[in-house]
Design goal:
Layout: H1 2-43, E1 47-55, H2 64-78, E2 82-90, H3 91-99, E3 106-110, E4 140-144, E5 147-152, H4 153-158, H5 171-179, E6 191-195, E7 239-245, H6 246-256, E8 260-263, E9 272-277, H7 283-294, H8 299-304, H9 324-336
Parallel strand pairs: 1-2, 1-3, 6-7
Antiparallel strand pairs: 3-9, 4-9, 5-7, 5-8
Length: 342
């Protein structure tokens, strides 16, 4: 009898366990899930991120600041309770504010503007072209432009030199211009070759990597900048030829309808926009800032750079399909361009 009663008690216990254990287990799992979720939310940053966009070289179309502002707005939508305060400032203002000890969380800046060792460091991106390897010393590139040589057709015709009609800039024409006694319509001497006014850190380097349409190897053009024949100049001033960013030429053409034509003759460029982070002292905030900076390498954003007449930092399918010249220029630089060595 006792044995039978014990068996019934055991059976009843098993029955109760089977009835109530799923709920107990489920409650435990739910509590564990909610605890993990709460811990993750606690670890994730909530608050403001200050983003400086240091404006230096121009974009060919539109505004780099506007594109970045739209990216930040989309980032906010995907990360609740995070607000990005983006500011567009000049290189001069940024330098002054950094000197006073101000620090943004994220900074977009032209290559060479600041010592990247001052940044808290973003790992080198494996997505971007390997040619950018040496530019990544604490920041990552996210867009770039090319240098072009611009022929002032008006000045050339005054001096009896015919601009090319086949879209090809040859070394023969380049040397002919350098050898000529160039004057304006009043007979006043003007520069044969000059820099534009929005070049990068070391535009003279373009001269070491001139490659004309009639040559497969580089032509050293170092002697072109002798004496008073050259120097910083705006495309609004008179010169026979200019070396400048493509974007500067495009803006000048749009704003002033200048009688000029540009040619990509150098494989070198330092017209690179970087993005990096300053250490906020908050690990979660640093991680969120890194996430924002990394979003500039997404294919969707990189594709939008075409709207600015800028280049993405890796091969993007379909980019510049409607502009053969610009597409060829991009492929030339992304595959065999010469970038700063850090």
């Amino acid at each position: 009898m006792l044995k039978r009663a014990l068996s019934l008690i055991i059976i009843a216990g098993i029955f109760l366990f089977l009835v109530f254990s799923p709920e107990l287990i489920a409650n435990g799992i739910n509590k564990n899930i909610f605890r993990i979720k709460a811990e993750r939310e606690k670890a994730s940053y909530r608050g403001n991120i200050v983003f400086w966009h240091v404006v230096s070289f121009k974009t060919g179309e539109g505004s780099g600041y506007s594109l970045l502002k739209a990216r930040c707005s989309n980032f906010e939508k995907g990360t609740p309770y995070v607000f990005v305060d983006i500011k567009g400032i000049t290189a001069k203002e940024a330098a002054e504010r950094l000197e006073r000890g101000e620090r943004p969380d994220v900074i977009s800046f032209p290559y060479g503007f600041l010592d990247q060792s001052a940044l808290c460091g973003i790992e080198k991106s494996e997505i971007v072209s390997p040619l950018f390897k040496n530019t990544q010393q604490g920041a990552i590139p996210y867009m770039f432009d090319s240098y072009v040589i611009v022929l002032n057709k008006k000045i050339l015709r005054i001096n009896g030199i015919e601009p090319p009609y086949d879209g090809r800039m040859t070394s023969q024409l380049f040397n002919e211009i350098l050898a000529a006694d160039i004057k304006d319509e009043d007979g006043k001497a003007v520069a044969k070759l000059a820099f534009g006014d929005s070049c990068g850190e070391n535009p003279e380097k373009t001269l070491e990597y001139f490659r004309f349409s009639d040559e497969d190897t580089y032509t050293l053009a170092e002697l072109a900048f002798g004496g008073s024949e050259c120097g910083p100049a705006s495309l609004h001033n008179e010169a026979a030829m200019y070396i400048c960013p493509y974007s500067e030429y495009k803006k000048t053409q749009t704003d002033n309808n200048m009688d000029a034509e540009c040619f990509p003759v150098s494989d070198y460029t330092d017209l690179i926009q970087m993005v990096g982070l300053f250490d906020s002292g908050n690990l979660a905030k640093n991680e969120m800032s890194k996430k924002l900076a990394g979003s500039l390498l997404r294919t969707g954003f990189q594709r939008q750079l075409e709207e600015l007449e800028m280049f993405p930092v890796y091969e993007v399918p379909g980019i510049y399909e409607s502009s053969v010249d610009r597409r060829e220029q991009f492929e030339r630089l992304i595959n065999s361009g010469v970038f700063p060595k850090g």
